[in-house]
C-alpha cells in the first residue's frame, strides 16, 4: 500500500507495540483476572458478615444498643464475643496472608498476593502497605473519598493493579 501523504482524522490512533514485561514472562505466574479478584474480596466480606450475624442477632434479642442499661452484663458479654469472633477471623486471615499470601476468599478463588517480581510478599508489606496505609489515607477528609474511589478503579488499567498494589509493590496472581 502506498503512502499518499493524506491522514484520515477518523482513523484509530496507532499505539506502539509493547513487548510483554519481563516480570510476567520470566517469573512463571499469571495475573489474576479482575472478576476473580472481585469475587475473592466479596467472599472475604461475606465471611466477616457471616461471623458477625450471630452477634447482631444477639444484640437485637437482648434489647439493642439503647436498652442495654438493664442487661449490662449480658450486653457486655455479647459485645465481647462479637469482638473476639471478629478478631479471631482477622488474625486467621493474617496468618494465611503470612504463610501463603492468601485470605480465605483468595484461597477459595485460587489467587494469592506476591511481590511484583514474583517473590513472596511478607506480612509486614501486606499489612502495612496494602491494608494499614490505604486505611489511613481513606480517613483524610476529601482526599480519603477520592482515594477510596480511585484505589479499586486502578484495576482497570493495563497492569491490573489497584493503588494499594502499587504502594506495596504487589500483584495478585493465580495460585
From TrEMBL:
Domain RDD residues, every copy: 32-168
UniProt membrane topology term: Multi-pass membrane protein
Keywords carried by this UniProt record: Cell membrane, Membrane, Transmembrane, Transmembrane helix
Location in or out of the cell: Cell membrane
Transmembrane segments: 38-61, 73-97, 127-150
Chain spans, region Disordered: 1-27
Listed Low complexity bias regions: 12-27
Domain of life: Bacteria
Main location: membrane
Organism per entry: Dyella kyungheensis
InterPro entries: Pra-immunoreactive (IPR051791), RDD (IPR010432)
Name the UniProt record assigns to this protein: RDD family protein
Amino acid at each position: 500500500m502506498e503512502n499518499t501523504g493524506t491522514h484520515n482524522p477518523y482513523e484509530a490512533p496507532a499505539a506502539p507495540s509493547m513487548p510483554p514485561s519481563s516480570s510476567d514472562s520470566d517469573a512463571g505466574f499469571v495475573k489474576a483476572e479482575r472478576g476473580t479478584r472481585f469475587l475473592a474480596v466479596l467472599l472475604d466480606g461475606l465471611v466477616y458478615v457471616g461471623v458477625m450475624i450471630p452477634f447482631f442477632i444477639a444484640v437485637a434479642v437482648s434489647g439493642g444498643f439503647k436498652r442495654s442499661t438493664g442487661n449490662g452484663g449480658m450486653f457486655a458479654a455479647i459485645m465481647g464475643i462479637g469482638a473476639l469472633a471478629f478478631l479471631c477471623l482477622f488474625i486467621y486471615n493474617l496468618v494465611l496472608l503470612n504463610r501463603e499470601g492468601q485470605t480465605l476468599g483468595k484461597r477459595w478463588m485460587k489467587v494469592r498476593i506476591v511481590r511484583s517480581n514474583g517473590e513472596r510478599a511478607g506480612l509486614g508489606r501486606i499489612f502495612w502497605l496494602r491494608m494499614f496505609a490505604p486505611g489511613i489515607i481513606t480517613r483524610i477528609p476529601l482526599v480519603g473519598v477520592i482515594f477510596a474511589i480511585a484505589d479499586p478503579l486502578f484495576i482497570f488499567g493495563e497492569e491490573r493493579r489497584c493503588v494499594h498494589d502499587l504502594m506495596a509493590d504487589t500483584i495478585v496472581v493465580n495460585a
